[in-house]
Amino acid sequence: MWKWLIVLACLSAYTCGVLSLGAREAVVEEKTTPQKPEDIVVARASSVTVGDAQHFGGLMIFPLIGSSLKGDDYFTLDEAIKLDLIKVREKGSGDVNLVVLQNYAGRPVFIMDGEEIVGAKQNRTINSSVMIGTKQIAEIPVSCVEQGRWVAVSSEFKSGETQLFASARQMNSVAVTDNYKAVPSAGPQSDQSMIWSKVAAKRAAIPACEGATDAMHEVYSVRQDDINQYLKHFEVVDGQVGAVFAIGGKIIGADIFDRHSTFEKLFPKLVKSYGLDAVDLDDKDNQVLPTKADAEAFIKRIKKSDVELQSYESPGEGNDVRIKSDIINGHGLVFNGKAVHVVLFAPVDASDDSAKVNQIAPASERRHRLTE
What we know:
35% of the residues lie in helices and 28% in strands. It is of the alpha+beta class. The chain has a domain at 37-73 and 167-361.
C-alpha cells in the first residue's frame, strides 16, 4: 500500500510541477515577448459586443459591452483638476500648439483626445489621448479653439467640461495621423487651419453667438439647453466600456475604453460632442437607421487587411497608435500593455471643403492668424 502512496505522491508532485512550470512560462512569455501596441489596440476593439441602441433626435448610440481591464489606477483630467493635482499652463510666454502639464498626483492622469481646456491666453483642445505619468511634467500638443484672443485671463487652464465636436474631432484624427507621418518627432500635431474653419462655421450657423472671439466654448454655452436634452435621454448600461455613435442615420465613430468607470466619467463629454453636430436634426432625418449589425461591422473594420496601424511614442506615457485606411481612421492609446482608449471614425466626407488636411503650418503663420 505504501508503494502506491509513494507513486501517487510522485505523480502529484510531477503534475503540480508541470502546471507551475506552464504558469511560469506564460508569465515569462508575456514579459519577454509582449504584444505590439498595434495588436493591443486591435484586440481591445475586437473584444467588445454591441448592445441595443438608444435614440434621441438626430443621435443614435449603440452601447459597447466588454470586460474592464485590470491595470494602473489613474485620474481623468477633470478629477485631477478638481483635486488640484495637475496644473495646465502656457508654455513660457505662450505657444499656440503646446501647453505644459505638471502632474502632482501619486498616479497617472488620463486625458481624452479633444477635451477642452479654457483660460490662459486662449482655449485649447488636446490633439490625441495621452497619459501623463505620476509626477511627470510634459509638453502636450494642442489646438486653438478660440481664434481672436491672445490675452491671458488666468495663469492656468481649467476644464471646459466639453470636447471638440465630433465632425472636427473626426477630421483632426486624420490630420494628426498625417502629421505624425510627416514629422514623427513633432508628436500629435493638428491641422490648426481646419479646426479654426470648423469652429467658425459652427458659430456662424448660430446667430446667438455674439462673442468677440471665435470660441467653441461659446457655441456649447448657447446650445446648452439643447445639449442637456441629449444628456437626459442617453444612459450608461451595465458593463459598458464604449459606444458607437450615429448622426442622421450614419455611423460616425466609436470610443472604447479600458474600463467601465472611465467610460462612465467621460460619456457626458462624448454625448455633448456628438450632440452638438446632431442638435439641428430630428427623427425625420433618420429615415434609415443603422442596425446592431451595422455597428458590429463598423467595429470589425479595424481587422481588415488594408487598414494601416502605426505606433508612435506618445508625448505622455505609452504609445499613440494611429489607424488609417479608406474605410476607417482613428487612434489608440496604449499604456503599460493595455489599450486605455481606442477611437474609430468613418472616412471623412470628401465633399466638405474643410476636410482637406494640411500639414503642419509654420509657427509664424499660426501666431499671425491668432488675432485675425
